[in-house]
Amino acid sequence: MTRSAGEIGAGLLPARESRPVAPGERIHVLGAAGAGASAAVLLAHAAGAAVSGCDLGGPSPYTAAIEAAGIPLAWAHAADHVATAGTCLVDRLAVTKALTSVAPDHPELVAARANGVPTEPWQQVIADAAASQGGRLVAIAGTHGKSTSTGWLVHVLEHAGADPAAFVGALLSPVVTGGLPATARWGRGGAFVVEADEYAGNFDAYRPDVAVLLNAEWDHPDVFADEAAVLDAFAGWLRSPGEERRVLVANVGDAGVARLVAGLADWPGRVVAVALDPEGSPRAVRPDVAIRARLAGDTLTLDGIGPAPLSVVLPLPGRHNAANAVCVAAAADQLGIVPDRLAAGLASFAGVGRRLEVKGEPRGVLVLDDYGHHPTAIAATLAAVRARYPGRPVWAVYEPLTYHRTAAMLDAFADVLASADRAVVATIWPGRDPDTTITSAVALAEAIGQRGGATSVAPGSVEQTADWLAERVRPGEIVLVMGGGRSYVIADRLVAALSDGSGE
After folding, report:
1. Pairing state of beta strands 165-172 and 182-185?
2. DSSP state of 250
3. For the chain, what percent of residues have pLDDT higher than 70?
4. At CB < 8 A and 24+ separation, what contacts does 71-74 make?
């Protein structure tokens, strides 16, 4: 069953035109330990707001930078974060839809409504911080690859001296942030780059000058009934106020994006169509600019940027990352980065957190951590690992992200995970699910086993999964941990167990 964006964001104000953050504006962020909400905290603080946050889940990999900035965080939820004795303590409340989707009458939301405090998605705070910074807003959207591509573009701009501000849904390295790893960067240059998520209208607050669409296929089955609904959401976002000023960088080598762009014949903006051979031709749709690319080994060659073909040895494996790189290059070109600096930035990117991140190789077991949580993304990640580490047995260790996605795509998940040498499924991370009875990790493990490929098992929680693995993995093997909830715990705990010998 699908729900509307209004139902999922119950009680939140609709997206509006962004405005600069007022100096000293009191903003409280509910769920501040999340990847995106933590960026809202940091960027509002940088824009001059008086920010506070809370999260019942306690510290996360994203909160160290907040605490280092001296921003107060509470590890509990309470109505008196918003108001006490009839006195408002904040000017607005920023909220994640992961909460409103399951708890629209959360005490802090109730307190905000009772005291006339506006409640908005945290994306609106980031959009307002962008208005404060004043650069061109660049939004990178798509079903897969958003964090990698957003981080890659931020790196290219920073490497070229363009000093961007940014929100990325994964940890950026200290080299990029200038401090601790964080999901945000504040800069005074001419661009503010954001990762734009299509879930339940999350990207509606962003009215970008440059939009980048990496790919488009069916995901979020609790919101979108089918792929057509996904494409309609992207089209509606592109057609929001200000469309006539926009540039769209579109990867028309992706079938969904090609269909979307074909329906934009009357769109008043400018289309930069890109494609990685042989997936598609940028001339097959209505481009104002066409960029074609080809990949030979790790070398990507781009035609259409600069006066001569531009060749780059890519630092990230896989054709999916090559397609991401083409989109990043096209966006950087639109932002005025000259070809030689653009190429140098593309070639020197070290990745972002939890995107094929090497966590260690204790006792000869290579442990990788990745955010992949959709069948297409998992397939691309497995292919990249096989290509980079040929001949090594691969354990695919997956913590499913949400029950509704797992149930709707169970067969597709089972098909792709069965291609690994062994598959391990941790307990499903519920996220925003109101119903946790529709499937289970055991059901997915059984479906994998029925494919006749990988042996599969469901050991339990992420902690139990790590401990189970520590007793069974062997030197020379690769453990590829994937998922979007707490799956990073599996990788960290496994590395620790193997490093101290407890897995022997």
Report:
1. antiparallel
2. E
3. 98
4. 71/41, 71/42, 71/45, 73/32, 73/33
Percentages helix, strand, coil for the chain (3-state, rounded to 5) are: 35, 20, 40
Flag whether pLDDT at 255 surpasses 60.
Answer: yes
Burial class (CB in 10 A: 0-12, 13-18, 19+), 391: exposed
Instruction: Kindly state the tokens that stand for 191.
Output: 């661009």
Domains and CATH numbers, the chain: 5-125 (3.40.50.720), 134-347 (3.40.1190.10), 357-499 (3.90.190.20)
| pLDDT digit string, tens, across residues 153-188 | 999 999 999 999 999 999 999 999 999 999 999 999
Within 8 A by CB and 6+ apart from 204, the residues are 14, 15, 123, 237, 240
Q: Is the pLDDT of residue 470 over 80?
A: yes
Here the tokens at position 408 are 């709707």
- What amino acid occupies position 444? L
332 in Cβ contact with 342 (< 8 Å)? yes
Which CA distances in Å does 48 have to 27, 44, 51, 330, 450?
11, 6, 9, 32, 56
- Cα–Cα distance, 468 to 477 (Å, whole number): 15
Residue with tokens 């104000």: 13
If one counts every other C-beta atom within 10 angstroms of the C-beta of residue 100, the result is 23
- Name residue 367's beta-bridge partners: 360, 479
Q: What is the largest CA-CA distance in the chain?
A: 68
Say if residue 462's pLDDT is above 70: yes
CA 149, CA 137: separation in Å to the nearest integer? 15
Compute the C-alpha angle 87/88/91, nearest 5°: 160
Q: Which pair of tokens denotes residue 239?
A: 């057609």
Tens digit of pLDDT for each residue in 367-410? Answer: 999 989 999 999 999 999 999 999 999 999 999 999 999 999 99
Question: Is pLDDT of 280 > 70?
Answer: no
User: Cα(383)–Cα(44) distance, rounded to whole angstroms?
Assistant: 39
Secondary structure (3-state) at 84: strand
Task: Kindly report the backbone phi and psi dihedral angles of residue 31, in degrees, each rounded to the nearest multiple of 5, phi listed first.
Answer: 85, 35
The residue among 91, 105, 120, 109 whose CA lies nearest residue 17 is: 120
Secondary structure class of 321 (helix, strand, coil): helix
DSSP tally for the chain: helices H, then strands E = 18, 23
pLDDT of residue 504: 47
Band (pLDDT 50/70/90 cuts) for residue 346 is very high
| Distance (Å, whole) CA 397 – CA 301 | 34
Residue 413 exposed, middle or buried by CB count within 10 Å (0-12, 13-18, 19+): buried
CB count within 10 Å of CB 489 equals: 19
